[in-house]
Amino acid sequence: MGGALHFVLNGEPVEVAGVDPRTTLLHWLRARGLTGAKEACGEGECGACAVVSVVPGRDGGSRYVAQNACLLLLPEADGAEIWTVEGFGRAGALHPVQQAIVAAHGSQCGYCTPGFVAALFAHHYAAHRPAPEQALAGNLCRCTGYRALREVAAGLPAPAAGDPFAARLRAPAPAARALHYEAAGARFDRPGSLAGALELRARHPEAVLLAGGTDLVAELNQRGSAPRHLISLGAVAELRACAGRGGTVTIGAGATWREIEERFAGRVPLFAQLLPRFASPLVRERATLGGNLMTASPVGDGAVALLALDAEAELASPHGSRRVPLHEFFAGYRRTVVGPGEILAAVHVPAAPPSLARFHKVTKRELDDIACVSAAIALWLDGGTVTRARLAFGGVAPTPARALAAEQALVGRRLDAASLAACQAAVAAAFRPISDVRASAAYRSALLGSLLARTWAEASP
Ligand SMILES: Cc1cc2nc3c(=O)[nH]c(=O)nc-3n(C[C@H](O)[C@H](O)[C@H](O)COP(=O)(O)OP(=O)(O)OC[C@H]3O[C@@H](n4cnc5c(N)ncnc54)[C@H](O)[C@@H]3O)c2cc1C
Ligand code: FES
Ligand code: FES
Prior knowledge:
Number of strands: 20
Bound molecules: flavin-adenine dinucleotide, FE2/S2 (inorganic) cluster
CATH superfamily of the largest domain: Beta-grasp domain
Number of domains: 3
Shape: globular
CATH topology of the largest domain: Ubiquitin-like (UB roll)
Number of helices: 17
Strand order of the largest sheet: 2-1-5-3-4
Largest sheet: 5 strands, mixed
């Protein structure tokens, strides 16, 4: 049974059958003649491929989000409502966003412009518009059109009365539904429950789990090959469940960074500092907490922050669930302790906010970049004396890791020059960074010391 995919594209229903499920939405759109969205990086970094989806908003309504079509596999569109730049307006009747770009001379080439239009379209209809820099952080222009585009983002008027795109937002968004689809010898399953996902995982150990796809599909695009069987977690509501009880916060592994930003930026220490620096708004719309931890990247931002907060991972299996402290979760470079039949279900962040919490991320550019070194520092103080310390670092070891000896050495001390020097020495002894394309070993080592010095300086200005 192959099955078919059904979705709404630029306001028209579409049925697709017989297309390899590993095809990206971008490639499918372009093969269909919708060539507005472009392929440039194929890794979610430039926004040339941006399209717009309708997703649930607050109060039962919907909102528009710009997404990287190069990171979406075609079956993920099943049940969705998607708009491409071709659907916003037409020659002689441009959409207000397109008109504003033309009026500001904001477009120099046809390569990046459709992606900027998609991002600005979502920005135009957003209930709470972010700063222009954030709205456009996922879109690259190689020939300096930014000033005009930023001005467009800053100056867009509210949607006009009777705007049909604005009216659409008052109705609910389509919900992801269970799906089984096969074509070209490959298979895509999207179970509708955690039990269904665990059962599929047990029956098909060779299948690969897919959450937001911002790591996995980017990697598949680079490699040019993909597994024959993918199990999407996109319709498993249990994995998106979040709660805050008695101060302890539980975040479902399937929660996106956008959802986390909306619900927990002010409640989980460090997150308000981390989130604006995490990828771009386009990536945050798809990328999940679970995917971030499961890739076990040495510079995973979520892992570094959650290590400093003593978080625990909850792993689900057909036989029940178990909890693993995050500092025992990473087993080696890009490896975790999660077993073949298990799924990361949630992360629990204990109550006990630190007196001082700092997240530092050193990158080559301010926004939408991966860290070369990151640090999450959480200190509990009593009358200026450290009672508990958590020092977690990324980019200096094969996995994100805590500096346990340095944490111990800080207890009972005040944040003065002597404790800083002792802490710097203990942290330096804990890690042997390596050189790679992002930074040299010497630079990384130097950063460890300077990020600690910065924290001490910020603690006693
Ligand atoms: C342009 C760009 C910028 C980025 N910037 C950052 C950044 O600033 N900071 C940062 O930390 N990361 C960054 N990333 C990496 C990525 O976005 C994050 O790691 C993201 O959180 C991954 O989540 P995902 O849902 O997309 O995972 P996916 O790609 O869907 O999955 C990643 C891996 O996890 C597995 N997996 C996913 N969910 C589960 C689960 N519940 N149980 C078991 N296994 C699971 C998958 O099988 C896969 O192996 C960036 C990526 C891109 C493309
Ligand atoms: S092609 Fe660059 S983000 Fe998709
Ligand atoms: S105008 Fe397209 S890359 Fe700059």
